[in-house]
């Protein structure tokens, strides 16, 4: 009896050298969130949540993150396809460039956006002169800043999914008379749909939390460019409780959406 | 003489490998490309489908030039009148059986309704009406194979290509599907090229066999010729014959020093000699009568082969002999043992090496 118990036990025994850092890592990730919950002013939560600025910032955040995700899908999926399926000179360089926003401090990204899309930038100036369109310090600017920072998440996820799909399905489609575009829309895209969805969720979550590039490129105007993270930052300077409440809202929205989508698309065990 | 429907000289260079195959297929004919793994059969099939461009040579189908590198002519796969049944079928996992089959007709410009109708008709013909709504993951191996066939046939291809169509099936299903496939291949009015490493599939399904080894055609002909007159060790092994090469002078073929076999027909020059392993008899000592077609041999190995034991012999001739377990017990066959082998003259076939 003891022998069998021991044998079963060894199968599940985790080395302490792994268990301790794993537990510490989990604590490190969860404790701050717990602190947030501890400091939440539960009694005055209702009135604070319905304060006019909160809902406006939340709505703006969700709208901008969603628009930024759509922009990333429109541009990022074709780019991911190109990287995964077409051999061209400089492909490694392009792949490296695509991931630059991942490692770039978002504030730097905001400055770079400002230099190019600002009123005196080469593209921003032309847009202003030709169409009278101004991007910085507008809601469109928020969407652009979020898309700039979040697009690599989508591209990496979709490219990975594309590499995982047997490209012979595309050959089969070709032998059935499908050109490359039809093959892409009818075969490739449906096959990578889970990967695209996972990438879109990551992209959306990243866009929702975007702060540095947004405040640099789009400013902090309530109702126009002030998203939740910006509102949290601003509230922190005057009213800690308000910042906590706003953070709680942001946390709840993120967790609910990620949890809701995870089982359906990301496919964890 | 009418030109063949498919006429090609397929030359494809890949790293360290060259495929060079001359291929002609008449309308209604089924040709099997038979060869060991890595011989270039699948490369040939991909070149026919347009999934791999030719390096040199040409490919004409129904009088239309599909690929001709020296004239910079290449018709991409989606514009070739070709249907392909892939080895693991490659049914689109996100589409039902019906939509898989309708995919081709839809690309040919049929309306969604007409395409689905055509798909339903084909599935019906293949006895899959009940499975039309199922996804590939819900089909058995045999059903998936038939859906793949329906999908390839639904585009009414001039050329039907099948890559190891039965390889993914278990032995039981294989017999049924092979019979069905034979039936549909017979019905197919265009040309059909089948790639397989299984001689049974080739013999059962094809009108003509083209044996490819190391990128080249080593033998071609109908089933009877290939099975009785193999020209390479590979083909001989496939059809279960001992193949030897020697020199004929009239009524005998000398196979090795001091050993010759008689032939039924007059033959001169380089010749192949074949005889089945069952025609070889083993003796513990030199048989009496001083038979001319007896030779000393060394046992190299013994293994079970059906209800016989197959004995591999080396020495003067590398050959295989089939003996019954009773005989084997009497001979106490062990590797390294010296025996005498003889072959019945009536079982020996001989034919010239030259074409």
TrEMBL record, chain B:
* Pfam families from the UniProt entry: ABC_tran, TOBE
Give start and end of each ABC transporter domain: 3-239
Q: Name one GO molecular function term.
A: ATP hydrolysis activity
**Signal peptide feature range:** none
What's in the keyword line of the UniProt record? Answer: ATP-binding, Nucleotide-binding, Transport
Q: Which SUPFAM superfamilies match?
A: MOP-like (SSF50331), P-loop containing nucleoside triphosphate hydrolases (SSF52540)
PANTHER family in UniProt: SPERMIDINE/PUTRESCINE IMPORT ATP-BINDING PROTEIN POTA, SPERMIDINE_PUTRESCINE IMPORT ATP-BINDING PROTEIN POTA
| Protein name, entry field | ABC transporter ATP-binding protein
């Amino acid at each position: 009896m003891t022998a069998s118990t021991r044998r079963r036990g060894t199968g599940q025994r985790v080395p302490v050298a792994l268990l301790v850092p794993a537990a510490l890592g989990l604590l490190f990730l969860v404790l701050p969130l717990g602190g947030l919950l501890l400091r939440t002013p539960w009694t005055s939560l209702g009135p604070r949540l319905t304060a006019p600025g909160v809902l406006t910032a939340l709505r703006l955040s969700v709208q901008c993150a969603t628009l930024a995700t759509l922009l990333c899908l429109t541009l990022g999926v074709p780019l991911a396809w190109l990287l995964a399926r077409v051999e061209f000179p400089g492909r490694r360089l392009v792949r490296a460039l695509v991931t630059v926003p991942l490692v770039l401090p978002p504030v730097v990204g905001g400055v770079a956006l400002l230099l190019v899309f600002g009123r005196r930038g080469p593209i921003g100036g032309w847009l202003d002169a030709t169409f009278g369109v101004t991007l910085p310090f507008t809601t469109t600017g928020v969407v652009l800043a979020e898309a700039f920072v979040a697009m690599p998440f989508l591209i990496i996820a979709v490219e990975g999914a594309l590499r995982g799909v047997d490209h012979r399905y595309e050959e089969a489609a070709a032998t059935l008379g499908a050109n490359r575009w039809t093959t892409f829309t009818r075969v490739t895209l449906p096959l990578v749909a889970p990967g695209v969805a996972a990438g879109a969720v990551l992209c959306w979550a990243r866009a929702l939390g975007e702060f540095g590039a947004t405040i640099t490129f789009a400013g902090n105007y309530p109702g126009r460019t002030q998203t939740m993270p910006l509102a949290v930052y601003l509230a922190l300077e005057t009213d800690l409780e308000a910042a906590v409440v706003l953070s709680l809202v942001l946390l709840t929205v993120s967790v609910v959406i990620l949890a809701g989508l995870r089982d359906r698309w990301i496919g964890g065990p | 003489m009418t030109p063949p429907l498919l006429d090609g000289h397929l030359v494809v260079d890949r790293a360290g490998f060259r495929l060079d195959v001359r291929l002609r297929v008449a309308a209604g004919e089924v040709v099997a490309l038979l060869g060991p793994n890595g011989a270039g059969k699948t490369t040939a099939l991909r070149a026919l489908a347009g999934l791999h461009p030719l390096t040199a040579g040409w490919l004409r189908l129904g009088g239309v030039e599909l690929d001709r590198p020296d004239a910079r002519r290449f018709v991409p796969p989606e514009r070739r009148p070709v249907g392909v049944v892939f080895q693991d079928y490659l049914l689109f996992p996100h589409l039902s059986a019906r939509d898989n089959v309708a995919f081709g007709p839809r690309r040919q410009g049929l309306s969604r309704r007409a395409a689905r109708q055509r798909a339903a008709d084909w599935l019906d013909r293949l006895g899959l009406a009940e499975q039309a709504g199922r996804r590939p993951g819900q089909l058995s191996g045999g059903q998936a194979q038939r859906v793949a066939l329906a999908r390839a046939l639904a585009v009414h291809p001039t050329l039907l290509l099948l890559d190891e169509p039965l390889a993914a099936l278990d032995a039981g299903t294989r017999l049924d599907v092979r019979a069905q496939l034979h039936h549909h291949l017979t019905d197919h009015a265009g040309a059909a090229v089948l790639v397989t490493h299984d001689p049974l599939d080739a013999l059962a399904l094809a009108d003509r066999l083209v044996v490819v080894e190391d990128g080249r055609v080593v033998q071609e002909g109908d089933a009877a010729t290939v099975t009785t007159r193999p020209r390479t060790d590979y083909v001989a092994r496939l059809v279960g014959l001992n193949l030897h090469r020697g020199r004929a002078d009239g009524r005998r073929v000398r196979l090795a020093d001091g050993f010759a076999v008689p032939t039924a027909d007059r033959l001169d020059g380089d010749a192949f000699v074949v005889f089945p392993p069952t025609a070889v008899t083993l003796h513990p000592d030199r048989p009496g009568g001083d038979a001319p077609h007896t030779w000393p041999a060394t046992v190299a190995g013994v293994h079970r082969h059906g209800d016989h034991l197959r004995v591999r012999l080396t020495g003067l001739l590398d050959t295989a002999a089939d003996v019954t377990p009773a005989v084997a017990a009497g001979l106490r066959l062990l590797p390294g043992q010296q025996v005498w082998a003889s072959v019945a003259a009536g079982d020996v076939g001989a034919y010239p090496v030259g074409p």
